[in-house]
Design brief:
Layout lengths: L3 E6 L9 H12 L6 E7 L2 H10 L7 E8 L9 E4 L19 H11 L3 E8 L13 H29 L1
Parallel strand pairs: 1-2, 1-3, 3-5
Antiparallel strand pairs: 4-5
Helix pairs in contact: 1-4, 2-3
């Protein structure tokens, strides 16, 4: 059965940057995740997990889902969208908030050198303060609910694929 690790990236003390941890909290509290799925609040330390998966075959999941707030031009606050690690624009690599680089490079290395599938589910931030100011905007609270629904669909589809292949 495919294993999936969901990483919620972000700082809950900086407004909408707490999107990823909020999704993980809701998934762990309210969703009935299969045993093969683990949701982790990685806060701002996702690099360490990714680096471990790159160096060691033991304990590698089949699929990694990264949840993070972003600030991309042309997106509406709270808008939820998937991006490929290879499609992050070069000018955004330094400010894309997968909690500081070389995270994008690690994601690309995982995709190229392991069999791990990587999905990045991002939500457009409305407000990320310069100083401590916890709490999500209303648009990001809506994105949390939508992200949970989308993740449950992804997980369910994986479970169905495994069931069909095992029959």
């Amino acid at each position: 059965m495919d294993s999936t690790v969901i990483f919620g990236c972000g700082n809950i003390l900086l407004g909408d940057d707490g999107f990823g941890p909020a999704v993980v909290e809701k998934l762990n509290d309210a969703a009935n995740l299969p045993e093969s799925v683990e949701a982790i609040d990685a806060m701002t330390g996702v690099r360490e997990y990714l680096f471990d998966y790159l160096l060691s075959e033991e304990g590698r999941p089949d699929h990694i889902i990264i949840l993070d707030a972003v600030d991309f031009d042309g997106r509406a606050p709270g808008e939820l969208f998937c991006i490929e690690s290879s499609s992050i624009p070069a000018q955004k690599i330094h400010d894309f908030s997968l909690h500081q680089f070389p995270t994008v490079n690690l994601l690309q290395e995982l995709e190229v050198h392991t069999s791990i599938r990587v999905t990045i589910l991002a939500a457009q931030a409305e407000y990320i303060p310069a100083e401590i100011e916890p709490g999500l905007s209303e648009s990001m609270k809506s994105a949390v609910a939508q992200a949970c629904e989308q993740i449950l669909r992804i997980v369910q589809n994986q479970q169905n694929e495994v069931t069909i292949n095992d029959v």
